[in-house]
Structures
1.
Amino acid sequence: MTLTLGTDRTRDFLGTEPDELSITVAGDQFIVHGRGHLEWDCDGFALAHVLVDDRTAEVYVEAAPNDACRTSDNDEGRGPWVTPFTVTGRFVGGRPDALEVHLEGQYIEGDGPRGGAFARTDL
């Protein structure tokens, strides 16, 4: 599984841009396209964990702070910033019945079970 950050970051002072996730599955491969809010322009997203519970695969993506740039010298870096990302992966040993993706972080909003953005597809 690979997570790739997009370079097309946009400052969203008012928080009007939605946090989004979409899932595409073809054969044994899947792609998650997402975008979410980060606190600083240098922060990123990271794969927090991947679970397979019964027949549901769950991928958790979380905001990952970068303390190197979170300084008073970098006032212009403070956001929040809407940042796109892509997660690509492959099912090994067969496909589960469903794939869920959770996006979580301080500035992430949505209807997920833990409050962040959420997407689910039945396979």
2.
Amino acid sequence: MNQKSVTKFFVFVLTLFIAEIVSTIAKNYLNIHTGYRDPYKLTAIQMGIIIVIYYPVFTLISSVAEIISTHFVKKTKSATIGGMPGLIIAFIIGLLICYAIFLNQWHHINVLKVLWRKV
């Protein structure tokens, strides 16, 4: 597997996570700030949100995320070892950022506050 295909895979994975983060934020907003309490209507609306967000946002985010990820990977590779190790380090950093966002969205845990308390 060459570096270009690995980069595309990493960008694709991070793009999926970014789209899910946007979708989660929209669904959480709907659950908290609207008057919908009927689970049938809420489920239908949330399914619509998934379609509305994932299709256009994925196409938009995939191009934007590719630009950002490519820039991020280049900067990380130049700041680190470069080549494949730098690409892996950039991907791990991106995964950790997404992990922290998901942890905050899904379980209301702020990783920075937890780490700060440990220090």
3.
Amino acid sequence: MKRFPFLMTLLLFAITLSGCDKCEGEKPRARITNNGTGDASVQIKTSGGSTENLNNVPTGSTSEYRNYDAGHIVYTVTVDKVEYVEEVHMSECYEYDIVIDSSNNIVTTQKDRND
């Protein structure tokens, strides 16, 4: 019985450590999920002048995340040679999901990675 409090303390400590995956100053990131009618590409322009690209993401797939500098961001999404442009402000520890539906409508979601 003396071991029970020790084991409970050890278990609580392990649970606490496993929940410590909060973002700490990491660059924002984006990915694209393409359920549209053709390959999709995203150009990510930052206010600092750098550009990141997610090119030729096939229909029915999701790209890997791409990291970029925080600040004012311009996303240019191209599907079947049609361009969609969206401007957002992205802080550190945020991610952006760009989802293209079967009618080539684009829904974007910004999420705090500290949640």
